[in-house]
């Protein structure tokens, strides 16, 4: 699971959960995998990001060092920051661990890089 | 296909798509080719902005064949599937997209406005089945479509290639999608050919009026170019084979120049093979 995916994932499909975001990450294995740098894509997803949640997630998986506290106001980021975002969003992978619903504490296991968001029948809204 | 032969009637998807079935998606070249063709057409129907890498959801992504088409078209994707074996094959294939294990009938677990578009290849008909005694197809379809609507950006499209069993299923699926707020409808390619006929549900998530695309090889399409279907496919084929050729590069550079971008000048070296170039994957 990439942190970009994590930034979009919620547990609000559980009955009674309103926001379900951001899910807490308890990682047990994290790896960095090389992905081609694509600045146009970073620019494209930027407006969709919840940066506070990204910073939190990056801290939880131990890759927050180069991320600033907040994004600059200007649209022009400079290559350094774009590359940092690229790294944190697309190259850092949580391979094993779990996600935790911030409202109910319900855990979703991550194995082989794939978070399991399946619900039990009584949780379905 | 006789009703009893339909995969959805044999077992729930997480059982039907077992190891043996999942293996076919790496070994059966005919199956692979079909999936790729359908994916390419679905991506075409998404009508994404040109030359822009987008963020796309692949619903029922399975072994990642459809996802690889998204990658080839320059997009970044997330796939969701209920079958662990299919997801396993996708991992083995080292697809570039990220994978999530989930049941689309429980809703899409993503924040509002996450994706620029969604595709789904040969998965939607599965939702018409009640695999557990508490499954109500119309309710699962509605949950699916309404949560999908929310996680798409406004004006985005969702394109589903699917194999409905009968017209009642088409009616059930479309009515639930419209109830969830989508507009759009069915696009049928080659409606008069039993073999080539393909159905696409092409949905728009708000964002003002959008024209439903025309099916390939249809009547109204026929006098313009009866080859419309052929030509669209041919264009894709040409594009594919000619990709990275000198003409392809020159054309691309010209387009970029027109957009006011900084582009290196053409020379006799343009598109020449470079020995040091790392091989493309
Ligand atoms: C014909 S396969 C699609 C193959 C895929 N497009 C590919 O490229 O490999 C249909 C897929 O839909 C998935 N599916 C069926 N019902 C589903 C559900 N309720 N939730 C999620 N995925 C589902 C199946 O597990 C299967 O992988």
Automatic annotation (TrEMBL), chain A:
<dbReference type="InterPro" id="IPR039127">
    <property type="entry name" value="Trm112"/>
</dbReference>
<dbReference type="GO" id="GO:0030488">
    <property type="term" value="P:tRNA methylation"/>
</dbReference>
<dbReference type="Pfam" id="PF03966">
    <property type="entry name" value="Trm112p"/>
</dbReference>
<dbReference type="GO" id="GO:0046982">
    <property type="term" value="F:protein heterodimerization activity"/>
</dbReference>
<comment type="similarity">
    <text>Belongs to the TRM112 family.</text>
</comment>
<dbReference type="InterPro" id="IPR005651">
    <property type="entry name" value="Trm112-like"/>
</dbReference>
<protein>
    <recommendedName>
        <fullName>Multifunctional methyltransferase subunit TRM112-like protein</fullName>
    </recommendedName>
</protein>
<dbReference type="GO" id="GO:0070476">
    <property type="term" value="P:rRNA (guanine-N7)-methylation"/>
</dbReference>
TrEMBL record, chain B:
<feature type="compositionally biased region" description="Basic residues">
    <location>
        <begin position="270"/>
        <end position="281"/>
    </location>
</feature>
<keyword id="KW-0539">Nucleus</keyword>
<feature type="compositionally biased region" description="Basic and acidic residues">
    <location>
        <begin position="239"/>
        <end position="253"/>
    </location>
</feature>
<dbReference type="GO" id="GO:0005737">
    <property type="term" value="C:cytoplasm"/>
</dbReference>
<dbReference type="InterPro" id="IPR039769">
    <property type="entry name" value="Bud23-like"/>
</dbReference>
<keyword id="KW-0489">Methyltransferase</keyword>
<keyword id="KW-0963">Cytoplasm</keyword>
<comment type="function">
    <text>S-adenosyl-L-methionine-dependent methyltransferase that specifically methylates the N(7) position of a guanine in 18S rRNA. Requires the methyltransferase adapter protein TRM112 for full rRNA methyltransferase activity. Involved in the pre-rRNA processing steps leading to small-subunit rRNA production independently of its RNA-modifying catalytic activity. Important for biogenesis end export of the 40S ribosomal subunit independent on its methyltransferase activity. Locus-specific steroid receptor coactivator.</text>
</comment>
<dbReference type="GO" id="GO:0070476">
    <property type="term" value="P:rRNA (guanine-N7)-methylation"/>
</dbReference>
<feature type="domain" description="18S rRNA (guanine(1575)-N(7))-methyltransferase Bud23 C-terminal">
    <location>
        <begin position="203"/>
        <end position="276"/>
    </location>
</feature>
<comment type="subunit">
    <text>Heterodimer with TRMT112; this heterodimerization is necessary for the metabolic stability and activity of the catalytic subunit BUD23. Interacts with GRIP1.</text>
</comment>
<feature type="domain" description="Methyltransferase type 11">
    <location>
        <begin position="57"/>
        <end position="132"/>
    </location>
</feature>
<keyword id="KW-0949">S-adenosyl-L-methionine</keyword>
<dbReference type="GO" id="GO:0005730">
    <property type="term" value="C:nucleolus"/>
</dbReference>
<dbReference type="InterPro" id="IPR029063">
    <property type="entry name" value="SAM-dependent_MTases_sf"/>
</dbReference>
<dbReference type="GO" id="GO:0016435">
    <property type="term" value="F:rRNA (guanine) methyltransferase activity"/>
</dbReference>
<feature type="region of interest" description="Disordered">
    <location>
        <begin position="214"/>
        <end position="281"/>
    </location>
</feature>
<protein>
    <recommendedName>
        <fullName>18S rRNA (guanine-N(7))-methyltransferase</fullName>
    </recommendedName>
</protein>
<dbReference type="InterPro" id="IPR022238">
    <property type="entry name" value="Bud23_C"/>
</dbReference>
<dbReference type="Pfam" id="PF08241">
    <property type="entry name" value="Methyltransf_11"/>
</dbReference>
<dbReference type="InterPro" id="IPR013216">
    <property type="entry name" value="Methyltransf_11"/>
</dbReference>
<comment type="similarity">
    <text>Belongs to the class I-like SAM-binding methyltransferase superfamily. BUD23/WBSCR22 family.</text>
</comment>
């Amino acid at each position: 699971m990439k942190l970009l995916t994590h930034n979009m994932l919620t547990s609000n499909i559980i009955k009674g959960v309103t926001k379900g975001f951001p899910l807490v990450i308890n990682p047990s294995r994290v790896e960095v995998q090389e992905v081609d740098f694509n600045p146009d894509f970073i620019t494209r997803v930027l407006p969709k990001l919840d940066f506070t949640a990204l910073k939190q997630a990056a801290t939880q998986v131990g890759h927050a060092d180069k991320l600033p506290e907040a994004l600059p106001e200007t649209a022009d980021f400079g290559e350094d920051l774009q590359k940092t975002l690229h790294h944190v969003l697309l190259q850092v992978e949580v391979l094993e661990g779990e996600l935790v619903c911030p409202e109910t504490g319900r855990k979703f296991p991550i194995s082989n890089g794939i978070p399991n968001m399946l619900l039990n029948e009584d949780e379905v809204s | 296909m006789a009703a009893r032969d339909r995969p959805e009637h044999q077992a729930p998807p997480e059982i039907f798509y077992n190891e043996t079935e999942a293996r076919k998606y790496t070994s059966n070249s005919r199956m692979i080719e079909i999936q790729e063709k359908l994916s390419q057409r679905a991506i075409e129907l998404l009508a994404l902005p040109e030359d822009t890498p987008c963020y796309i959801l692949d619903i029922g992504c399975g072994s990642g064949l459809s996802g690889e088409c998204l990658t080839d078209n320059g997009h970044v994707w997330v796939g969701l599937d209920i079958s662990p074996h299919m997801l396993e094959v996708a991992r083995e294939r080292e697809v570039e997209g990220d994978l999530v294990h989930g049941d689309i009938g429980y809703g899409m677990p993503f924040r509002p406005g996450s994706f620029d578009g969604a595709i789904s290849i040969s998965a939607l008909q599965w939702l018409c089945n009640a695999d557990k005694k508490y499954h109500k197809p119309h309710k699962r379809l509605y949950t699916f479509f309404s949560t999908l609507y929310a996680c798409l950006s406004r004006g985005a499209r969702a394109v589903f290639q699917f194999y409905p069993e009968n017209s009642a299923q088409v009616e059930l699926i479309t009515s639930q999608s419209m109830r969830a707020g989508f507009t759009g409808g069915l696009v049928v390619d080659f409606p008069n050919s039993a073999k080539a006929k393909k159905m696409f549900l092409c949905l728009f998530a708000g964002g003002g009026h959008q024209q439903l695309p025309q099916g390939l090889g249809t009547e109204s399409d026929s006098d313009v170019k009866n080859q419309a279907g052929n030509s669209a496919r041919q264009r894709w084929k040409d594009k594919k084979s000619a990709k990275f050729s000198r003409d392809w590069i020159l054309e691309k550079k010209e387009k970029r120049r027109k957009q006011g971008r900084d582009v290196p000048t053409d020379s006799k070296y343009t598109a020449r093979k470079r020995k040091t170039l790392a091989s493309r994957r």
